[in-house]
């Protein structure tokens, strides 16, 4: 009997030992930081095997007006605006000599206003250059965080324009026959890069460092008078700061500021919040702000952003707005009737933290200690 007990206990010991060994074998190795983040020296070694273009050099070299991927009449019907194309695709041939661009991530998708989109900036001789990156990955900000510098191999990808906004992309065909005005939208356009492809071509340089982000201080009049489609492309996607402005509880009604309503944002598209419903059409909602000289522009927000139903700040709260400058013009069929206007410009904030608005000593949305002040979301109660 004692022998039997010994055998049972011995068997348990063998099984336990085997389980420990199995778990140890399944334990992934510790992450090697050197394989995740290049040093500046390592980045230079990578670049030395090819060539690295500035963002503006990249656009000037590879982005043509009509594109090279398909015949111009195969873009969506809304593409052509006079002699310009709002939608285009230029493929970049794979090269024996790798071609790179680099830049620092200026966006954060945690609040939901930059869906499957990154923007990067590069400082060249003290001036900001910027570009949008269209990547098919949700919560991509978790992988490429705000302030992270990245190096991207671009040969084999494409550069195109979507609503006149230049972006790194891949060709995509829209065949959604149920879209609003589908007859104008079916066709080729700049599309998202599959995440596996983007990840294989992108390397991080150093750790994320938000202190190295450059916020270009602008007045509203510095950009809203730029209505030429070609010039607007070099301004799009810049990280900017607009100083001494305030909201007025207005939205754009065909380009003219109009007073927001006090309706339910789940049913009223003009409600006094950042982005009420669009009945799932999901076009960005514009909310107007002014400077002290009565010039106006807008903050642009997706109805799916986490702060979409936050009330707009009262008009007595003045201060700064920071975010990504955008020029969105998507309907070339109306180019002669409705040429670009100042309301085609907007600022896309990354979260409400991008609003520094004050009334005396009081800060909108947060108290002096940085604590959230309840009651600023829309409530039916």
Which features characterize this protein?
12-stranded mixed β-sheet, 9-stranded mixed β-sheet, 23 strands, 8 helices, 381 residues, alpha+beta
Question: What topology does this entry show?
Answer:
Elements lengths: L1 H25 L6 H4 E2 L1 H9 L2 E2 L2 H8 L17 E2 L2 E2 L2 E4 L7 E7 L11 E8 L2 E10 L12 E5 L4 E5 L2 E10 L7 H4 L1 E5 L1 E2 H7 E4 L10 E3 L1 H4 L5 H7 L3 E15 L2 E4 L25 E7 L4 E6 L16 E10 L17 E4 L6 E5 L2 E2 L18
Q: Can you describe this structure?
A:
This protein has helices spanning about 1-25, 35, 40-50, 55-60, 180-185, 195-200, 220-225, 230-235; strands at about 35-40, 50, 80, 85, 90, 100-105, 115-125, 125-135, 150-155, 160, 165-175, 185-190, 195, 200-205, 215-220, 240-255, 255-260, 285-290, 295-300, 320-325, 345-350, 355-360, 360-365. Strands 1, 2, 5, 6, 7, 8, 9, 10, 11, 12, 13 and 14 form a 12-stranded mixed sheet that branches. Strands 15, 16, 17, 18, 19, 20, 21, 22 and 23 form a 9-stranded mixed sheet that branches. Strand 7 and strand 8 (about 125-135) form a beta hairpin. Residues about 1-10 have low confidence and may be disordered. About 20% of the residues lie in helices and about 35% in strands. It has about 375 residues and is α+β, with helices and mostly antiparallel strands.
